[in-house]
Amino acid sequence: MNMRMAAALCGAALLFATASHSAPKSLVKIQKISKIQAAKIASLGYDVVSIKDGYAEAVLDKAEAAALSGKGYSLKTLIADLDKYVEQMKGTQNKTDAYYNYAKVETVLGDWAKKYSEICRLESIGKSCENNDIWALKISDNPQKNEQEPAVLLMGAHHSREWPSIEVPMAVAEKLLTNYSENPEIKRLVDTREIWIVPVVNPDGVIYSMEKSKFWRKNRRKNSDGTFGVDLNRNYGYQWGDVGSSNSGYSDTYHGPHAFSEPESIAIKKLA
What we know:
2 domains; 4-stranded antiparallel sheet; 8 helices
């Protein structure tokens, strides 16, 4: 597909962390460290979710916490068991049904493609590891044609636990579609660009996160060492295997056996 793609990864990260099948995870404060030290810890594959002046916060199981303590780091547990914490939060702001799930995204995109067919079309740009469609909605004044126009790509859910990242591209798509005929500025944007919306890059992970393990981050690839999942955001070719990723399948930042090893990242590569 020949197009000039300005890629924008929209989304806000939920303070969720990946849990393994058996080891409970805790939210831990790593105290009295510099930002450089925090970045080094993250580069080793630890799930560092926040870096501040003088400390960092990470999601660790007992073995990971013990390993960092053994290296002389001072740790303070903020939330001892994140699974239990989320269960206790049910009925408040962390209800799963407050967010788009994969099935709802699929349904809503299909409805939009029918209702606004003059300015959008829906296509599957590939299949995930578990054979779920990776849906892309193209919004343009001539959606069936590949025009030589600037293109924009909005994506969500590279990391499956980041449910709010699905909301952003869906909200943008809805705004463009429902206001096209009434808002001159939106009409101008749609008429002069090819806008691609991929709300769920990682469908398998999102389904698994919402139905089985809320803290799951990676896709659902079965790795050769018996572990599951590749961090799709670290599976692209640019600086693959660099700082901030891991070569261990046990890590939440596992970059995969090689760049573009995953069908999900390949689908985005082909689209872009």
